[in-house]
Amino acid sequence: MATTASRTSSAAPFVPEGADLAALRRAAAGCRGCELYKPATQTVFGAGPADARLMLVGEQPGDVEDRQGEPFVGPAGRLLDKALDEADLAREGVYLTNAVKHFKFVPAERGKRRIHKTPARGEIAACLPWLRAELAQVRPALVVCLGATAAKAVLGNSFKVSERRGQVEHAEDYDVDVIATVHPSAVLRAPDRDEAYQGFLADLRVVRSHLGK
User: Fold this and answer.
1) pTM score, two decimals?
2) Staple partner for 108: which of 97, 113, 138, 213, CB 3.0–4.6 Å?
3) pLDDT single digits (tens) 126-164
4) How far out from the chain centre does Cα 188 lie?
5) What is d(CA 137, CA 57) in angstroms, rounded to the nearest whole number?
6) Smallest Cα–Cα separation from 91: which of 106, 109, 70?
7) What is the DSSP string of 8-22?
8) Distances from the Cα of 17 to the Cαs of 13, 102, 127, in angstroms?
9) Which domains are assigned to the chain?
10) What is the pLDDT of residue 6?
11) 112 SS3 class
12) Are strands 142-146 and 176-181 parallel, antiparallel or unpaired?
């Protein structure tokens, strides 16, 4: 049975009202809005220019990101960099973040490897005040949701990436245009990686076209 604390957990009390991105990042380092902070190495907040026209939202930091404290610096991040470059979307002009700011994992049965575990709906909801604050500060022209967790966080729990990927949607809750696609880690896991990569790249080219570049 869920405890009262777990039912009401939220990052909201930790989010300073009207803070800029630097102040939000400092505040997020002390977030205790859900239980995920306990086993994680650190909070992994968003990174990128405050005036970015494009914001990419993933699910959560991975093992490498948890250790380094920056988003998309592991294997999936390297694939994302390659795809952004091919789609003529410079990473330097993109704000990168995740729906959940702490790495959720389970230990491997053997060794020290930590295995990614998908955040629960309550954990995603608890972390949304940080994403809302980032969106309010950056005010991007377009948000790209990488994977199902990010898409559901922004577009609602009924949204299915498999049915609507690559299409321009409007997120009423955030008043921003959104395109959903797969997470680059899904490309790395795909049976036919080249085919999956080409599909991902095609979605990013839709993004480039929508931004009018």
Assistant:
1) 0.93
2) 113
3) 999 999 999 999 999 999 999 999 999 999 999 999 999
4) 17
5) 15
6) 70
7) S--SGGGS-TT--HH
8) 10, 21, 15
9) 4-211 (3.40.470.10)
10) 41
11) coil
12) parallel
